[in-house]
Amino acid sequence: MRELLARARERREFSGAAWACGRSAGPLARGVLGTLSWDGDPVGDGTLWDLASVTKPIAGLAVMSLVESGDLTLDDPIAFHLPEYAGTDKAGITVFELLTHTSRIPGQQPLYRRCPTRRDLLDALVSLPLREAPGVEYSSQGFMILGLIAESASGMPLDRLVRERVTAPLGMDDTRFVLSESDRARAAATEDCPWRGRVVRGTVHDENAEVLGGVAGHAGLFGTLDDLARLGRALCAGGPLGVPGVIGSRTLAVMTGTRTGGRALAWQAYEPRLSSGGDLLTASAYGHNGFTGTSLWVDPELDFFAVLLTNRVHPSRSSDAIARIRRTFHNAAVTEVLA
Fold first, then answer.
1. What are the CA-CA distances from residue 73 to residues 93, 94, 256, 280 (Å)?
2. Is 333 helix (H, G, I), strand (E, B) or coil?
3. What angle do CA 22, 28, 29 make, to 5 degrees?
C-alpha cells in the first residue's frame, strides 16, 4: 500500500496521504506519507483531512439515529419537517429518497456561483427544478436538504447533532465541522481555488458548503486517520451490536443492506465492476468517497475496513487518476488483511 501511494505521489497525484485497514478487532496496517501541501510540513498522525462527501454517511448515521429515537421516519416527506417546501414540487419527496439519491433533485449544481449568502442558496434549493424521469442521480443538493430535516427533527444544529449522536460516542474527538484557526495549521491543503482566489486549507473545499457556513449534510467534516479508522472498526463490528452508542444492529442492517440502483441509505453499495472499493470485496460491502480524495470502505462479510485519505485536488482537481489509485489500494489492503 505504501509503495502504491508513494508512486502516486511521485506522479504528483496528491501531496500527502494517510491510510489504515483492518478488522473489527482494530487496524492491522496504517501509515502516512508526503506533505500537507507541496511546499508544506510532513503529514502526521494528527493531520486533519477535508472529508468532503464522506460527510454524507456520517450525517446519515445521525439521521438513522433519529429514526430509532422516533424523531423521523424514512417515509416522512420533506414538507413535514420543512414548511417552506409545502406546496412545491419537492413537498412529497421522502427521507428515504434523499438517502438513496432517488429524489429527482438534480446534483452537481454550482449554486454558489449565483448565491452569495446562505439564505440565497437555501432559497435556490427550494426552486431547483426536478428531473422528469425517476432513477438514481447522486445529489449533494438532496443531502443539503436532508441536513436541514435532521436539524428540524432533532431541534439542534447539524454539527451538534453529528457530535452528540455519532462522533462523540465513537471517540472521534478530532472529527468536526469548521476548524478553529489553530487547527487549520494541521490541515492538508486542497485546491488552488479560482473562485476564492487562494489555496484552500483548513476551510471546506466544497463551495456550496462554504456558502452554507461550512456545516451541511453533504460536505464539511474534517477528520483524522485514527478517527476514521475508529468509525471503520465500529461499522465492521456492527453485525450483532450495531454501532454501540450510535445505532442498533437492525438499523445498521437496514441502512447498509437496502440497495437501490447501486446505493444504500447514505452509502454507496459495492458493485463488482469499477468500484472504488476494488475488485476483491463481497456483495455485502459498502463505502463512500469524498471528492477531495478520501474514502471509507467496509465489508462485514470479510470483517474488513479500509480508510484512504489524500488531498488529490491539490493544487488542481483536473486529474482523475484517484479512481484507479483507490481500486489498486483496496485490492492491496484486502490482500494484506486476509493474508
1. 13, 9, 16, 35
2. helix
3. 105
Per-residue pLDDT tens over the stretch 241-299: 789 899 999 999 999 999 999 999 999 999 989 999 999 999 999 999 999 999 999 99
Selection from 252, 255, 224, 225 nearest residue 240 by Cα: 252
- Beta bridge partners, 289, equal 295
Cell of 83: 414548511
Amino acid at position 107, single letter: G
Listed in order, the ranges of the chain carrying CATH 3.40.710.10 are 2-54+173-338
Cα 186 from Cα 263, distance rounded (Å) = 33
Where does 63-160 sit in CATH, by number?
1.20.58.710
Domain with CATH 1.20.58.710 in the chain: 63-160
Indicate the fold that domain 2-54+173-338 takes in CATH. Beta-lactamase (3.40.710)
d(CA 245, CA 230) in angstroms, rounded, equals 13
User: Is the distance from CB of 307 to CB of 1 less than 8 angstroms?
Assistant: no
pLDDT of residue 242: 86
How many angstroms separate the CA atoms of 143 and 137, rounded? 12
pTM > 0.85? yes
Phi-psi region of 208 (alpha: psi -120 to 50; beta: other; left: phi over 0): alpha
Instruction: Single out the residue of 25, 281, 312 nearest to residue 188, CA to CA.
Output: 312
119-136 per-position pLDDT tens digit: 999 999 999 999 999 999
